[in-house]
Amino acid sequence: MKKPLIIMIHRVECDDSSIDNLYYQRNMVIKIDKLIELINEIIKSKFSFGTITESIDTRKNLHITFDDGYKEHLTVAKILKKEYRSVGLKKENCSFAINIGNSFLHEFSGMDLIYNIIKNNSIEELCSYLSINNQKNCNLDLLKKIYIKMNISEIEEIKNSFKYNFEILKNQFLNQKEVIELSKLFNIISHGVYHRDLRYHKKSSKREVLNSKKHLENLGIKPIDIFCYPEGKSNKDVWQICKDSGYKFGLSINHAPNNPYKIGRYCINRNIAKILRKLKDA
Ligand SMILES: [Zn+2]
Fold first, then answer.
1. pTM exceeding the 0.70 threshold for the entire prediction
2. Number of domains in the chain
3. Residue 207's CATH number
4. How far is the CA of 68 from the centre of ligand 1 (A)?
């Protein structure tokens, strides 16, 4: 089974959005016009909008996913709704992955926290904290490698050791009210609590995979049956944790055939050429 046409989007530049330069440098931003242009191109080919299941089964359906619950996602959701309602875009055709820590608990984590920290401190300070002592190795890629494997108290310790801007982080993510509003427009899926590599510290992983589902469902957003792995990282143990917690699917980046817990996605920024090639092959 080939990788289905599920696209993965992070930040979207809309008229009113203010997105820090770092997100541009990390190639995580797409302009709304460009996004619409690409979706138009896809649906002008043999693809039409579909649910996750349809995109896996038919390979003629496009499913759109947004990761991390960034503030602008509600604006984008409204724009897409307006733009594509007449050509059959339904609620189940887009999924928005929400991180409980960032959106509701204000226990900020993920690379968003790291980006914020290096705006307020030097990257070198953070590198030496993480024992990256060779100046040459002090870069965001290596920082990320070390950071996403940390346990929850280590993540907390970073926040106690470095200055970060609470208000900027708070305003960067959708809040509870906005997530509920978004849930009326499109699918909400879970993206965990601490945005870390769930293959490590499995006891905590179990807790956050289950708790993030419960948290969203307690807000009346039901059912939460898709889990989106932070940084796309998963393995057999994580698939089992998701299954045991009541999820039906796990969204990743790489694809494994016939495994509902390792569904691949195409990154809209990095895989545009691949996506366009797929349209020709269909
Ligand atoms: Zn994410």
1. yes
2. 2
3. 3.20.20.370
4. 5
pLDDT-derived band at 33 (thresholds 50, 70, 90) equals very high
pLDDT tens-digit map of 97-112: 999 999 999 999 999 9
Confidence of residue 244 (pLDDT cuts 50, 70, 90): very high
Q: Which long-range contacts (CB under 8 A, 24 or more apart) does 214-221 make?
A: 215/100, 215/104, 216/98, 216/100, 216/179, 216/188, 216/190, 219/176, 219/179, 219/180, 219/183, 220/180, 220/183, 221/179, 221/180, 221/183, 221/188
Neighbours of ion ligand 1 (CB under 5 A): 67-68
Would you state the pLDDT for residue 282? 65
Q: How far is the CA of 178 from the centre of ligand 1 (A)?
A: 18
The range of the structural domain enclosing residue 135 comes to 111-167
Q: Rounded to the nearest whole angstrom, what is the distance from the C-alpha of residue 229 to the centroid of ligand 1?
A: 7
Q: How far is the CA of 86 from the centre of ligand 1 (A)?
A: 30
**Do residues 99 and 122 both lie within one domain?**
no
Domain membership of residue 198 (yes or no) is: yes
238 CA distance to ligand 1 middle (Å)? 16
Residue 9 CA to ligand 1 center (angstroms) comes to 10
Kindly give the distance from the C-alpha atom of residue 110 to the centroid of ligand 1, in angstroms, as a whole number: 7
